[in-house]
Design a protein that fits this description.
222 residues; 42% helix; 18% strand; eight-stranded mixed sheet; alpha+beta
Length: 222
């Protein structure tokens, strides 16, 4: 590569050549390509709050089931399903009850935060969704599944009416977060996969939200 070619690339700061070309220009000038094009380096590195974002999905069901399975099976200290119905997890993960029961027996905290099927907020959500498989029915399916593992150590469930617009699923230091959009069903809303890297980051903010809801929640079982 000639110096004239390199000068052409460097004359316009808005132009960022392909990685292979950047390396070739850097070699020709005897400097690091990162020094010549720091913008390119910043675009490939997460330097701010977004560094805790592992992946982003436009729809919850765009996240592979294998990701969920790895998070569930890999957790050893804490699992929390804080979705309003949590219905889909029982449908998509075979023998989930047995797996969660073993987690509890091995010392893992397994929590479920669900909506109250008889609450007014649930009824209003059913009107907004207007689908045959109602919100209350989906919650009752979860409650029925939880009833089968309620005696397992470490397993607990509480009602909350305040998380209907935000679902948070925690697995040790990783979580999946879904903000619900308008009248769309959960699987139609976007989702973020987060991994905790430090104090007061995105992970901690959502974790504090769930903890506050848990503290004010009502026990499912007396």
């Amino acid at each position: 590569m000639t110096c004239k070619t390199a000068e052409r690339w460097l004359s316009d700061p808005a132009r960022v050549p392909h990685p292979q070309t950047r390396e070739a220009v850097g070699a020709a000038l005897g400097v690091s390509a990162d020094v010549l094009w720091p913008k390119a380096l910043r675009s490939t590195m997460k330097l701010g709050a977004d560094r805790e974002i592992v992946s982003a999905y436009p729809y919850r069901n765009a996240c592979p089931t294998s990701v969920w399975a790895a998070l569930i099976d890999g957790a050893s200290e804490r699992i929390c399903f804080a979705g309003y119905t949590n219905y889909f997890v029982w449908q998509e993960h075979p023998r989930l009850g047995e797996r969660l029961k073993r987690k509890g027996e091995d010392g893992c905290s397994v929590r479920f935060l669900v909506g109250d099927p008889d609450a007014e907020v649930t009824r209003r959500r059913e009107e907004a969704e207007a689908v045959p498989l109602t919100v209350g029915t989906r919650i009752r399916i979860t409650l029925d599944a939880l009833e089968k593992i309620r005696e397992a150590p470490g397993v607990a469930a509480r009602f909350s009416d305040q998380h209907i617009s935000l679902s948070v699923f925690m697995f040790d230091d990783e979580m999946l977060v879904t903000p619900h959009i308008a009248n769309l069903l959960g699987h139609e809303s976007p989702m973020l996969h987060l991994r905790r890297l430090g104090d007061d980051g995105l992970y901690d903010r959502f974790a504090s939200h769930v903890e506050a809801l848990w503290e004010t929640g009502r026990p499912v079982w007396s």
